[in-house]
From TrEMBL:
Keyword Lipid biosynthesis: no
GO biological process entries: methylation
Coiled coil: none
Protein name in the entry: Methyltransferase
SUPFAM superfamilies recorded: S-adenosyl-L-methionine-dependent methyltransferases
UniProt cross-references to PANTHER family, sorted A to Z: PUTATIVE (AFU_ORTHOLOGUE AFUA_2G14390)-RELATED, TRANS-ACONITATE 2-METHYLTRANSFERASE-RELATED
Pfam families in UniProt: Methyltransf_12
InterPro entries: Methyltransf_12, SAM-dependent_MTases_sf
Length: 242
């Protein structure tokens, strides 16, 4: 899905790309294949250790880098991409402006973000199970917000990109069913495990968390994935200067 969004920018050999908060660099590595040795891919992350096995190509730079505080690693990029990064950053608006400033005129910014508000239960063994899922999910969103994340950032990103002065701004939204036991639904399991103590403080009992984990393994339970809203826009070739 994300590869398709990047291809829609006209991605081609020789491009210089910045992959922000690249995680394990699965997309950064793919970008490196697309631009070839005549191009350049800079992959940043505040914790780049998950991407270390990928850094052997000469035209790929892997940097430990904080997109909020560190100077940008370059400018004049043909493409800047960040997936599921700005959602978590309280400084997302300033970061977005920095990313736009890192583009060459005509260069593309692609942001891919979840809308964490829309995860309907599509099937459940009983109504209690569906209610439990909604309860834990609401608590997770509350914790996200409390830490400065914006669970609705996915649905705000396009408007902000337009107001930042980007043109040709378009979005595609992707969602799928996540049945219990599937790879996708394991995201909820990881999220719950990482913040189990905070969830208990927020009023979810240990027993409910155990039931929630079991539910995520039940093939009779199906939840919608988070919708991934992929927004792309380009820096204008001519900018109005005040
Ligand atoms: C949800 S993961 C997404 C990883 C990857 N973009 C993907 O979609 O597979 C968020 C990533 O952003 C990184 N990150 C968080 N804060 C950051 C910051 N201030 N500067 C750079 N990277 C950051 C995290 O270390 C993590 O790898």
């Amino acid at each position: 899905m994300s590869r398709r969004q990047l291809e829609l920018t006209g991605l081609k050999t020789g491009w210089r790309c910045l992959e922000v908060g690249g995680g394990s660099a699965s997309l950064g590595g793919w970008l490196a294949e697309q631009v070839g040795p005549g191009g350049e891919v800079t992959i940043t992350d505040i914790e780049p250790r998950w991407a270390l096995p990928r850094r052997e190509q000469a035209h790929v730079r892997l940097l430990r880098h904080d997109i909020v505080r560190d100077p940008l690693p370059g400018d004049g990029y043909d493409l800047v991409h960040a997936r599921l990064v700005l959602l978590h950053l309280p400084e997302r608006l300033q970061v977005l402006k920095r990313l736009v400033g890192a583009l060459r005129p005509g260069g593309w910014l692609v942001l891919e973000e979840f809308d964490c508000s829309w995860v309907p239960v599509l099937a459940a063994p009983d109504e209690d199970a569906a209610a439990l899922f909604r309860q834990v999910h609401t608590a997770l969103n509350g914790l996200l917000e409390a830490s400065g994340a914006d669970p609705l950032w996915g649905q705000r990103a396009l408007g902000v990109m337009v107001r930042t002065g980007l043109v040709d701004v378009m979005a595609t939204t992707y969602a799928e069913a996540w049945p219990g036991g599937s790879t996708g639904i394991a995201l909820h399991r990881h999220n719950v495990d990482q913040v189990a103590c905070q969830l208990v403080q927020a009023g979810i009992s240990d027993r409910e968390l155990d039931r929630f984990r079991i539910l995520l393994q039940d093939p009779e339970f199906v939840a919608n994935s988070y919708p991934l809203i992929s927004v792309r826009g380009r820096r204008p070739f001519e900018e109005n200067t005040p």
